[in-house]
């Protein structure tokens, strides 16, 4: 039962949840479908909002707490909106030795966000990761599927403009 | 089912094939420490405190989850085992706050006991401390995740026994924390406030939200007339806090102790339990006559009521509208009692001693407020009351027995058995049968099982009764009702295993055996009570004659009945 008494917000809520309903309709409403549903929903919305998770829980006859437990277990799921561009900065050994931390500092400075955060304009999300397997290019970052290697801090502003 | 033979510490033992090493050792009287293990819950095997050694391979095995195999040779207390246990506990202590002196579970903490038993004298490892905020927004429970050792007992009791699923493990690795969805406070989620999580928690990570300080303040406030009522199940449980055997009936000492604390009047919720039966019994009779749809479902358990509001909106109309004994009692203190005593209801402060954490939530329910004012001002659990008695320096065991005060203090056997599963049903049917047929009800002697079904003949009608304790058991019955497959007339539901004797606010440690003894204690009172039927309680009769009129009359309906609200499932 929906306890929202405001018709206006109820309507916009329904509109917001309409794509989710289409996703849910493609499954049988069984517990085993939870992860594919979460993946598709994240694909659709960019992240997993509280009301989306609540709806998924009700549909699969699971509790909100159980669904939240699963979502927070897997690093592939996100509870906050994500940037249009995801910057992954390598913090592995080679990148560390080659000054990866200075690149991270520069990215933080340019974007005015911390590791794991997203810019207010939803353009960029910054994530420090363990290793992206391109040690020969250290220090290295990936923006979406593109690799930018052998960086020095002053390269960063120009690289970012390519994505704005 | 076959048996196997194994050797533990040189002694041979025959056990069932499915048994675990822990069960086999227990059969020999060998004690193995445990933390994440709980006899009422599924096995988890996460804490590794119960490790034992395989004599042949030297392997360390978690005894709580390792099944026996024929011919196994096990050693339970070798130097290697003791050292492993100690290190495992030391690692738990490495990021534990270790502020035992200020902890509510000081003295009843299993982690503390195990550390002592294993001979841990210093905390060698300094781990990175957790830094989660305390959630004391209530209304019933307080959560301190920094004290949590991730044994998962609370998660399992909430899922397996209660079917609520409010808590779960979230995040992973060092960030793992047991919490609600989005860390919402218990007030915002589907928690029933039953407090079973608090009773199975081995540490102080989940406790009741304390009300002691506020009650002390009220007692010390000269302008307040402070009344206390004690729920039926307190009398056979509170003795445990003072070293008495579980099930010891300590009604007289309880009344005496409450006077020593400084309460102005010492009354019994049992009185109001009789009142509940008068209202609810008559409500049921009306339903039997076709006034409203059956089954009639009891509503005195606040954990169950909230669970129903979240999960069974369609059955809310079947709930008895009679307030719980606690809330009826409190309403009477601020109306009838105030009038009789010439007191301003605003000067009356009504405290309830309950076996229950959910009563702290019930106390704050909007539906139970009169002109936006709560009728119950403070709820203490059995454990909290015991702490107050100790703080006051009262030697509980040597107290001379005293009586409850007159006017709202008399109870019957029927009221007393409210405190154990099946009690409300038996009490109600005693009055209902006599009202309808004029004949007394034979003893029902219902058992303490999780689900109990009976058929009781009243006149020419067979009344089908179902009794459930533990919310997961309740679900089983209610799904049948929802599907139209059951023919029950009367359903009693108590959220806690075995009813209030197993309540979330009762003394710790607890076990099925202890709960049984508490229930037997209540039954023994019922047997010896001169008056065993609610409708014969002289103070209740007087209340109707002088003040309320008939049960279900306009005035009693206003004062003694309530309604419910549907809530989101999650």
- Assembly annotation: heterodimer
Count structural domains of chain A. Answer: 2
Strand order, largest beta sheet of chain B: 2-1-5-3-4
| Level-2 CATH architecture of the largest domain in chain A | 3-Layer(aba) Sandwich
Count of beta strands of chain A: 4
CATH homologous superfamily name of the largest domain in chain A? Glutaredoxin
CATH topology of the largest domain in chain A: Glutaredoxin
Could you estimate the helical fraction of the residues of chain B in percent? 25-40%
**Helical content band of chain A:** 40-55%
Note the run of SSEs of chain A as H and E: HHHHEHHEEEH
Query: What number of domains of chain B?
Result: 2
The 3D shape of chain B can be described as globular
| N-end to C-end Cα span of chain B | 42 Å
Radius of gyration of chain B: 25 Å
Describe the structure in your own words:
The complex is a heterodimer of chains A (164) and B (570). Chain A is α+β, with helices and mostly antiparallel strands. Helices cover 45% and strands 11% of the residues of chain A. Chain A has seven helices and four strands, in the order H-H-H-H-E-H-H-E-E-E-H. Chain A has helices at residues 7-25, 34-45, 50-59, 64-73, 93-97, 100-111, 156-161; strands spanning 85-90, 124-129, 141-143, 146-148. Chain A is elongated, with a radius of gyration of 19 Å. Chain B folds into two domains: 3-92, Ubiquitin-like (UB roll); 213-560, Rossmann fold. The radius of gyration of chain B is 25 Å and the shape is globular. Helix content of chain B is 34%, strand content 14%. Chain B is built from 18 helices and 17 strands. In chain B, strand 15 (451-458) and strand 16 (461-469) form a beta hairpin. In chain B, the strands form five sheets. Chain B has a five-stranded mixed beta sheet with strand order 2-1-5-3-4, sandwiched between helices. Chain B has a four-stranded parallel beta sheet with strand order 11-10-13-14, with helices on both faces. In chain B, strands 12-17-16-15 form a four-stranded mixed beta sheet. Chain B has 570 residues and is of the alpha/beta class. The chains are: A alpha+beta (164), B alpha/beta (570). Chain A binds chain B through residues 1-3, 50, 53-54, 57-58, 62-69, 72-73, 79, and chain B through 164-172, 180-182, 189-190, 313, 566-570.
């Amino acid at each position: 039962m929906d306890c929202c008494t405001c018709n206006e917000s109820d309507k916009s809520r329904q509109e917001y949840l309409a794509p989710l309903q289409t996703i849910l309709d493609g499954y049988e409403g069984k517990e085993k479908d939870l992860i594919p549903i979460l993946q598709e929903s994240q694909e659709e919305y960019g992240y997993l909002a509280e009301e989306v998770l609540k709806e998924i829980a009700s549909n699969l006859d699971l509790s909100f707490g159980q669904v939240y437990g699963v979502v927070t277990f897997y690093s592939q799921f996100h509870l906050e909106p994500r940037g249009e561009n995801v910057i992954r900065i390598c913090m592995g050994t080679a990148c560390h030795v080659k000054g990866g931390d200075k690149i991270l500092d520069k990215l933080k400075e340019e974007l005015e966000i911390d590791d794991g955060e997203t810019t207010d304009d939803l353009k960029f999300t910054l994530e420090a990761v363990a290793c992206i397997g391109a040690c020969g290019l250290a220090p290295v970052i990936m923006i979406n599927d593109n690799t930018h290697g052998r960086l020095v801090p002053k390269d960063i502003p120009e690289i970012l403009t390519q994505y704005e | 089912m076959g048996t196997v033979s194994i050797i533990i510490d040189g002694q041979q033992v025959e056990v069932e094939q499915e048994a675990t090493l822990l069960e086999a050792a227990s059969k020999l009287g060998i004690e193995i420490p445990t933390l994440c293990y709980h006899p009422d819950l599924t096995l988890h095997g996460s804490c590794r405190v119960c490790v034992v050694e395989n004599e042949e391979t030297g392997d360390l095995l978690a005894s709580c989850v390792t099944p026996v195999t024929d011919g196994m040779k096990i050693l339970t207390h070798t130097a290697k085992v003791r050292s492993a246990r100690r290190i495992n506990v030391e690692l738990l202590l490495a990021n534990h706050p270790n502020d035992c002196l200020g902890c509510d579970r000081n003295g009843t903490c299993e982690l503390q006991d195990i550390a002592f038993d294993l001979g841990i004298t210093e905390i060698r490892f300094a781990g990175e401390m957790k830094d989660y905020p305390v959630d004391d927004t209530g209304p019933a429970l307080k959560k301190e995740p920094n004290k949590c050792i991730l044994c998962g007992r609370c998660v399992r009791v909430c899922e397996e026994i209660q079917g609520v699923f409010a808590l779960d493990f979230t995040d992973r690795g060092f960030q793992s924390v047991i919490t609600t969805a989005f860390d919402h406070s218990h007030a915002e989620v589907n928690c029933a406030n039953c407090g079973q999580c608090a009773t199975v928690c081995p540490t102080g990570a989940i406790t009741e939200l304390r009300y002691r300080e506020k009650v002390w303040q009220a007692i010390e406030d000269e302008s307040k007339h402070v009344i206390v009522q004690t729920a039926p199940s307190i009398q056979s449980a509170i003795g445990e806090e003072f070293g008495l055997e579980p099930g010891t009936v300590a009604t007289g000492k309880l009344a005496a102790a409450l006077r020593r604390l400084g309460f102005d009047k010492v009354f019994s919720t049992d009185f109001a339990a009789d009142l509940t039966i008068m209202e609810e019994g008559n409500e049921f009779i009306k339903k039997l006559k076709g006034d409203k749809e059956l089954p009639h479902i009891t509503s005195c358990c606040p954990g169950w009521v909230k669970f129903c509001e979240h999960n069974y909106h369609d059955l809310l109309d079947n709930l008895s509208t009679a307030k719980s004994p606690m809330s009826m009692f409190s309403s009477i203190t601020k109306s009838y009692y105030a009038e009789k005593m010439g007191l301003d209801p605003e000067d009356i402060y009504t405290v309830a001693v309950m076996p229950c954490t959910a009563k702290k939530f019930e106390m704050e329910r909007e539906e139970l407020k009169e002109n936006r004012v709560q009728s119950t001002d403070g709820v203490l659990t059995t454990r909290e009351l015991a702490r107050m008695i100790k703080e006051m320096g009262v030697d509980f065991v040597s107290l001379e027995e005293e009586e409850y005060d007159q006017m709202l203090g008399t109870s019957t056997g029927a009221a007393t058995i409210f405190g154990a599963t099946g009690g409300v049903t038996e009490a109600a049917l005693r009055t209902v049968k006599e009202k309808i047929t004029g004949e007394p009800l034979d003893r029902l002697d219902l058992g303490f099982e999780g689900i109990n079904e009976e058929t009781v003949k009243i006149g020419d009608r067979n009344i089908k009764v179902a009794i459930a304790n533990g919310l997961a058991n309740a679900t089983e019955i209610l799904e049948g009702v929802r599907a139209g497959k059951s023919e029950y007339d009367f359903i009693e539901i108590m959220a806690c295993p075995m009813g209030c004797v197993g309540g979330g606010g009762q003394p710790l440690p607890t076990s099925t055996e202890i709960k049984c003894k508490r229930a037997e204690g209540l039954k023994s009172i019922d047997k010896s009570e001169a008056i065993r039927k609610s409708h014969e309680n002289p103070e209740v009769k007087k209340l109707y004659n002088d003040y309320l009129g008939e049960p279900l009359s306009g005035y009693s309906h206003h004062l003694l009945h309530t309604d419910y609200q549907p809530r989101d499932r999650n």
